[in-house]
Amino acid sequence: MVTIQAQLRPDLAHLSPEALTQLANAGLVKRALREQAAGYVPELRLEDDDTLVAAFSDGITTRWPKGKPITQVQCSCVATAICRHRLIAALQFRELLALSGSGQEAENTQKTDASAAPPAGASNSPATAAPTDPPSPGLASDAALSTLLPAALLARAEQQRQAGLLVHIHRRGAGEPCDTARLPAATVRYWAGAAVEAARCDCVQQSACEHVALGVWAFREADARAPHAPMLPVQLGSADAAVRLPAAPYLAVLAALLRHGVLQGPAPCAPAFNLAVSDASGAGAEWLVQTLTDLQQWQAAYAARSARYSAEDGLDLATELVLRLHLGAQPGQAKAVLGIGQPHEVPLDRLRLMCLGARTERDGAERRTRLVLADLDTGSRMALLHDWKVPQPAPAAPLAGAPASGAAGAAERCVEIEGEVCVGRGV
């Protein structure tokens, strides 16, 4: 049996089936597990540079260089994306590592029973023991980040850090399957801890992105401040560098609403709204723009006598606007609360979403459906809105060869059975 040492490839030692499901997809991982259990396993060897080479019996060869994510692994099969051979290679590596650790443990036990003083080298060393919890992502070196990420991505990450960024750190066991960094626009899971090549991001790039570096820097500060805290918010960069917005244009919106109310329609408040939206858009405060837009739509709903109008909604939106302005004025909170610098749309990788509920509001022929969804991988929750109209029913075509009066009579003889309309014959 080939001797596998965990410290040579820590990125592979912690790639569990759950982690591989995040990197690939559940169906492909299940297929890899089935084929591995059926005996389709490769011969593994580590080259001098710690590249894992997996040679399958059908001639397929997979080469997994150290420090590279699964998306950059070379395989001789015809697949253009992540294939089952890469997954089987990772699963077989973990299995051999576990077998090597079990055999070494049994050998050490026999030696301990034979002699009270165990000989040198008989202890259960980390080199052959089964994989334990990986080290913190904060222990990843700058050299490891430089190897994984291109210089342009590292420079982009450094710019975001200097501009100020709030990252929420969740350690393994604190409701998370692995060390996790929640950024404003992405969530990074470090399945192998400091082996950042195994990190998985839910952005469209999936791995080896600037979010991986930002999460590592946040973990470094968290390890220095509170190494045992299960959850910790970390402010990257100088809090004073965060952008602040003047409150005057937004307070003018609230003053106009209090002065004119909704009875006179949107026109009296339009100048204040336009000035506030322009100010928020110029500062890139995406979430303030959305709040102001919702407030405008609420006011317009009353003027249109919409059934979706509710006075409580306007009160909630006004309260949200005041709270965002108040909290956004705190040092370092402008981005997290006002959405400054956050794009209107963020391209994401595939998601596994579960619907928590839905509500449809009716206003004449218009409908608005609100879906509340949860991301099963990151635990994030989101609400999706969809506006649509009920299509007008097409006019019924007259029955062939029957006059209008005959068609009306035939329609009266229609019977509805279990929701299906059937034309009665010979009645």
TrEMBL record:
Region described as Disordered: spans on this chain: 104-141
Keywords: Metal-binding, Zinc, Zinc-finger
Domain SWIM-type positions: 60-94
Regions annotated as coiled coil: none
PROSITE patterns: ZF_SWIM
Residue stretches of biased makeup (Low complexity): 113-131
GO molecular function: zinc ion binding
Protein name as catalogued: SWIM-type domain-containing protein
Organism encoding this protein: Ottowia testudinis
